[in-house]
Amino acid sequence: MLFLKKKQINAIEVAKQAGVSQSTVSRVFTPGASVSEKARRRVLETAKELGYRPNALARGLITNKTNIIGLVMREIQNPFYPEVLEKFTKGLRKRGYQVLFVYAEKDELQHDDISQFLEYNVEGVIVTDALLSSKVVSHFTENNIPVLLFNRYAKDFSGHVVCCDNYSAGKKIGEYLLENEHCQFAYIAGDTNTSTSRDRERGFREALYHEGIEPKVEVGNYTYEGGYQAALQLLKSDPQLDAIFCANDIMALGAVDAVKSLGLIIPKDISIMGVDDIVMASLPPYSLTTWQQPVDEMIEASINILLGEISGENEGPVSILLPGKLIERQSVSTFKK
Amino acid sequence: MLFLKKKQINAIEVAKQAGVSQSTVSRVFTPGASVSEKARRRVLETAKELGYRPNALARGLITNKTNIIGLVMREIQNPFYPEVLEKFTKGLRKRGYQVLFVYAEKDELQHDDISQFLEYNVEGVIVTDALLSSKVVSHFTENNIPVLLFNRYAKDFSGHVVCCDNYSAGKKIGEYLLENEHCQFAYIAGDTNTSTSRDRERGFREALYHEGIEPKVEVGNYTYEGGYQAALQLLKSDPQLDAIFCANDIMALGAVDAVKSLGLIIPKDISIMGVDDIVMASLPPYSLTTWQQPVDEMIEASINILLGEISGENEGPVSILLPGKLIERQSVSTFKK
């Protein structure tokens, strides 16, 4: 199974020609390693002469540092996630790390889904929009490979978590709708098994509970079609509804189109609100009032935490909840007092 | 710079305990390598007892086969590309390959953008929606690393190309609009530097030329806002326009909203058409007639060509142009004869 490639100049030859040790050569090409300026210059000149290309695999084996981060994504087609992928990749690249990308089919990752992260000696793992069983997590932690959950958390999860403060968002959304004199509320949940949806619902209910109000609830499965059908169902059983809070924008788009299909006018007859502030939320046919997740801050925090642990700085699992902000467009009626 | 991890059982210890050579152990864990059934069983049992985990880095160095494919994407947020990423990742995974993901900022990739592909000894490179200079391509071909352009091509490109037949699509779109009795045409180009946009325009012009018609052209830069502004500009200088063909759906969405903002009705007053069939094209406010790219076939062809060359089957650069198909919705007026 040997595949012959053009003979590569290796570190030994460079070391010989430059008159330094092989480990000096390795350090020159390892980001962050310390080496004297004189030796660095000599090695780089020699490497250039010989056409030497650093071999990250060899370096990874020798130093036990591959500079690879494993990134798992599930809902890559939900417009929230391509932005997340782009920003993680750029942010990690700036810090000298490569991304090994895995697409996960199910919400709970099994060992097989990410076994290659262990085989390729990734230095850290980021999981977006999915959960890991504690058995899978321990495969990594036993090997001192930090794991970070992005936009999700789970009880008994022993790794790091960076999330939007979804409970607080749900509560502020409830308060905002109450301030604007809505009385009959509904909530379209994403997936009742995920922390994001459950927390948004908890916060929303908490705000309404103070006014003695309980929302109707339907499940939309985080899809456009799910949001569409859920909205039709809600209006069928409760034509007096005047506000629907959807756990994400994709479902809110469906709810908007469902409501319009019934001949109702938004926001005059009914207000619709979402979460995420995806690009489509800003398009004129939707002009969705929504809750913007602090994506940039979440990504920066995730990278700092993960790389911090890799370099031995952290003392234990870190959980960060970041607030987002309200983006007011035209899908919620507001009363200027 | 040594990062201590839990001591890993290595192949030497497995070999010793199983009573075989180290290269036998390596072959047992190298997909496709040949080894006797008896030796395989003994090695696997021993590995399990000792808790041995194959090290893909070591295997990559020894066999010169890393099972990693480098994938570069630029427009990851254009909804066409998350679908492409998901399908490539799944398709390559089925064939035993991992994806090292790079996000590219500019349309023409420089050496720095993808130098890590060489450092990590990827076995092949897929570039979507961007170009490589021939200098960059030669870095790979000199090392027998095949390069494939997906959804783009360039003159003098020495690698493989898999593309939608954009010229033919543009021509069929022109013919379709002519059959449906449109007379005053405009084309909103994406980026006149890319093969996709140029070919769509060439085919479109070719169809209209036969009827002695020449379309007006504006540039929309493949963005919603670009499409919106381009449509306004076109209608300002030519209010008699009755058909606008947009080089992609994102711009077509902008054109639809711009046209509506002028109080015009689609398709009664003017027809709008796009390319890609992104999810948003099917939403009721747009209901866009569009040209669907044969994504599944393009991805399967790309994987087959790339892996074919990696295993030494291909004889030279392969170029494949695949036809797409018309998706009729409600943004183009049609005359039933």
From TrEMBL, chains A, B:
UniProt keyword list: DNA-binding, Repressor, Transcription, Transcription regulation
Gene3D superfamilies cross-referenced by the UniProt entry: 3.40.50.2300, lambda repressor-like DNA-binding domains
HTH lacI-type domain ranges (all copies): 13-63
Transmembrane segments: none
Gene Ontology MF term list: DNA binding
A Pfam family hit: Peripla_BP_1
The UniProt record lists the keyword Iron: no
CDD domains referenced in this protein's UniProt entry, alphabetically: HTH_LacI, PBP1_LacI-like
InterPro entries xrefs: HTH_LacI, Lambda_DNA-bd_dom_sf, Peripla_BP/Lac1_sug-bd_dom, Peripla_BP_I
PANTHER family: LACI-RELATED TRANSCRIPTIONAL REPRESSOR, RIBOSE OPERON REPRESSOR
Protein name according to UniProt: LacI family DNA-binding transcriptional regulator
